[in-house]
Amino acid sequence: MEPVDAEPPGAFLSHATEDKPDFVEPLAHELRSRGVAAWLDKWEIRPGDSLVRRLFDEGIAMTNAVVAVVSQYSVNKPWVREELDAAAVARVNGESLLIPVRLDDVPMPAPLKHIVWITADRTPEGVVHTAQQIADTLHGYDPRPAVGPLPAYARVAAVAPGLDAADTVLLTETIREALRTNEMMLLNWDAVKSRAKDAGLSDERVEESLHMLGEQNYVDVALRTSGAHDYHLTRKGYRAGIATVLPKVEEHRRAVIAELVNDQPTGSTVIDDLAARTETPPLVVEQFLNDLQDQGLLSYRRYLGSSSQLHSVSPTLRRLLV
Is 187 found in the same domain as 88? Predict the structure, then answer.
C-alpha cells in the first residue's frame, strides 16, 4: 500500500506590492521548494474574484500561518494593516501562526512587538534564510540537540535516606571494591573514584558524595590534601548498599544459615568453607556471621589472614529458615 503524502502546510504572504519583485515572490518560490504551500496573491487571485473572499476567507483563514512582511512600504498601508489585524485575530483564536518578517529596519507595529520576528534583507541569501526559518517552523523542526541517554548515576535509586543517586553510586562502587578484595579496610580509593567517574560523576560531585558518606558514617575516611587516604567501608555502609550490588543477598544469607544449621563447618577456614559451599563472596559470609554473632546466635572468631573458626551455633538459628 502506497503511503499517503501529508498535506503541506500553507503560508499566506501579507505584503506590500513594492516588496513583491525583490523579496516576496522569491520567498514564495523558496517556501514551495521547501514543502510549504505559499499563498501569493499574484498566483491565487484571478480577474472577477472577490478580493475579500479570496484574501480573508480562503487565504488567511485556510492557511497554517500568515507571514507578515513588514517593510518601509507596508508598515503604514491600510490594506496590509487589515490583513495583519485578521491574522492577529486568527492567532489569538489558535487558528494559525503569525510570523513577522522585518525588512529595512523599520519599527515594528504594536501588534507584532511581542512576537518573535525574522529580520531579513533584500538579497538572495536573505530570502533563502527567511524561507528556511519559516519552513522549519511550519514543519515542526526542533533545532535542539538530541537528548542523550541518562548517565549511569542518574539511573540509580538512592539506597538510604539522606543519600542521592550520586552518593549511592559512590557507595556501591566502594562495596564492589570491598567484595573484590574481601576486605572493608584500606580500600583502593583511586579505583573507587575512577569507577564513579566512569558512571558520570564529576570530580567535584565525587568529593561532595565522599563527604556526605563520611558524615553519615557509611564510610570512614581520612582526607588529605592529595585526596582520600585510609578509606574504609563501615558496616552501616555495607548494609545500606549490599543489596544493590548483590541483588540475591537474602538468598545467599539463607544458604549460609542452612549450612550452619545442617552441616556446621569445622576447622580453621569456616568463612572460606561457607563461601565455597554456598557460592557466596567471602566478605558477604563474614558480614552474615558478624550479624548472627551480634544477635547471639553463634560465636566465631576470625584470625589474621584467612583463618576463621566457628565456636558454637545456637539451636534457635534454625528458626531463621522458616
Answer: no
